[in-house]
Amino acid sequence: MEIFKWQWSLGSIICIVYLICGQTVVDKRQRTFTIDYDNNTFLLDGEPFQYIAGSFHYFRAVPQSWSRILKSMRAAGLNAVTTYVEWSLHNPKEDVYSWEGIADIEHFIQLAQSEDLFVILRPGPYICAERDMGGFPYWLLHKYPAIQLRTSDIAYLHEVRTWYAELFSRLERYFYGNGGPIIMVQVENEYGSFFACDHKYMTWLRDETERYVRGQAVLFTNNGPGLAECGGVDGVLNTLDFGPGTTEEINDYWNELRKHQPRGPLVNAEYYPGWLTHWQEPTMSRVAIAPVTATLREMLSAKVNINIYMFYGGTNFGFTAGANEQGAGHFVPDITSYDYDAPIDESGDPTPKYYAIRQVISMFFPIPNVPVPIPLQKMSLPSVLLTPIGSALNRGILRVIGSPKVTSIYPLTFEALNQYSGIVLYEALLPNNIKTDPMKLTVSKIHDRGYVYIDSTFVGVLSRQNAIDALPIILGLGRKLQIVVESEGRVNFGTPNDFKGLIGDVFINEQKIQNWTMIGIPLDNIEKIQNLCNKHRLEKHFSNIASNFGAKPGIVRGPTIFHGTFDIAKVDILDTYVNPIGWGKGVLFINKHNLGRYWPGVGPQLTLYVPKAILKKTANEIILIEYQTVKSPSMTIEFDSSAKFN
User: Fold this and answer.
1) What are the chain's domains?
2) In this predicted structure, what is the pLDDT of residue 14?
3) pTM, 2 dp
4) Most distant CA atoms of the chain, gap in Å
5) Annotated catalytic, 270?
6) Of the residues 86, 115, 270, 486, which is catalytic?
7) Which residue in the list 115, 130, 190, 488 is annotated as catalytic?
8) Could you say which residues of the chain have pLDDT below 50?
């Protein structure tokens, strides 16, 4: 009798487990996201479905702000969020992976699902996104100097396969058919704009992606109008990207697409409400609200599926901003802000464009019962005194923050030195048989900006962006040529094999300079710089520093490390904007967080966004690396309550 009771109880337990777990399995099997080509629509669990999404790249915002931004997107009526996956963020060095903090993509996806947003995943492996090297990790160029990225090059395919195994082992469970929010996965990115047009590669990448997706989400490609022939691949949905336009223009785009894909849902995978901005452009890029909402309304009424790129732009923290080549290879680096004139601004606040777009969306989609966001208050702070710790030309400082010295007959690139970004000091002796005065220094190819010294005396600037590849050098300054080369960001659109440093030969008049010494200063080990600041204070060492530069007292020759601290004990901590107006060009850290590059002298970006999440009540620490000559032994930096642009 007791045995019977036990068996009955076990059977009950089995039935309960089956009902719970079995039902879960059945529910997952019922979850499908597919394409009904005959009726030109997506099907969500068998029912016609149209999406209105917005782009938000998790790596452009501190994780503490993710939830607020996603909630604001949902409040606008969006039912999906689109994000790239940045290979270089998660795999910064060979065999090294990062999945925490700003790289915690799983947490981002979970937050999106909790806000009732589907996810459209764009894993690349090339993403463009105005990011350094289009999201590729720089070490690919170190490991394979001749690698042909975005082609069927065996070395490249091997590295993509290794990366995808790491990535998708974490993300497979989030595909819609597996119970997660990911409804679509992109294959490559705007490949129709890439010169290679390698169909073998695109077929391989389709199959490699499908190895993990296995029909549990929809695969798609994305290209500009008229580029589907090289950018598409059999068995994968073709989508387009374009901004506001006339009815005739947009109909022409769709008609061209229909030549390659006669049936299926229409998708604008990047609908542009704004645009990107480069350093030295006269103003920030702005797009008027009226044409944005007019085209949006027209597409939604035609049942077009839309992703608004960007809905929230954010910030290119650190050295992550990329660059573009315009016209005949004219190099233009991207600014730190990725505000993009998006509906949600860099600080996460809604703009007038947000409310206008929300109004249009409400005509076609139910607006959820989510509070409409309001702008958050920002703070200004008293100016902070920064004092110079020392120059990168100082040997004692180089020993602390520099990489081991490397010698070579010819100058080596950043990538050959296995350096991601920052600066590299190149040194060589000038020939002693030159009699012309002045001599002519010529660098056949500099990537990207070079600060030239002779025995620590500043001579001038070489610039890829401004096409300055030569400088006059007066006889008698000395023998040691020093060129501090700064990476301003690898090209993100086009050919991403953008090596940094002195790429070509260096000449004095017609004589080639050989036998170089190189010291890398990557500036990514902030702890080393911080320790240096704690040991070297202006009051004790400035006179020695000045003498090491061969400079007059009161003048510090860059690139120079500056340091300062500030407290926020008497006010609530809010977002703010650091204002480096009066400084030259460089990079700025607060509490070890690299806020990005500043260059207020050329703009159009003047201030850098400071999220409140990186601040604390007391002993906030600023470290500023100024690349150009500063004519004061101490300078201040300001904090404003609003962003400033030219």
Assistant:
1) 31-361 (3.20.20.80), 381-388+525-640 (2.60.120.260), 403-521 (2.60.120.260)
2) 34
3) 0.92
4) 113
5) yes
6) 270
7) 190
8) 1-28, 538-539, 541-556
